[in-house]
Amino acid sequence: METSPIPVVTVQTAPFEDQKPGTNGLRRKTAVFEGRKNYLHNYIQSVLS
């Protein structure tokens, strides 16, 4: 098993106006997630922060 720590990567991003989840989470077409750089990463970070 590897004993070295996992490296932390910091990425500068900006919020997207349409990232407002409803009761079922963030519902978007696949093309939105694939077409916008860091879209999913931004959303996950906003939930955790």
Could you describe the 3D structure shown?
The chain is mainly alpha-helical. Helices cover 33% and strands 0% of the residues. The chain contains 2 helices and no strands. The chain starts with 29 loop residues before the first helix and ends with a helix. The model has no long low-confidence stretch (mean pLDDT 81). This is Phosphoglucomutase 5.
Can you lay out the helices and strands and say which pair or pack?
Blueprint: H1 30-35, H2 39-48
pLDDT under 50 segments (min length 5)? none
Strand count: 0
Radius of gyration: 14 Å
Alpha-beta content class: mainly alpha
Given the structure, what is the number of helices?
Answer: 2
Order of helices and strands: HH
Shape: elongated
Strand content: under 5%
**How would you characterize the largest beta sheet?**
none
Give the helix level as a range of percent: 25-40%
Distance between the termini: 30 Å
Q: Averaging pLDDT over every residue, what do you get? A: 81
Organism: Nothobranchius kuhntae (Beira killifish)
Protein name: Phosphoglucomutase 5
Provide a compact summary of the structure.
This protein is mainly α and 49 residues long. It has helices at residues 30-35, 39-48. This is Phosphoglucomutase 5.
Note the main attributes of this structure.
mainly alpha, elongated, 33% helix, 2 helices, single chain, 49 residues
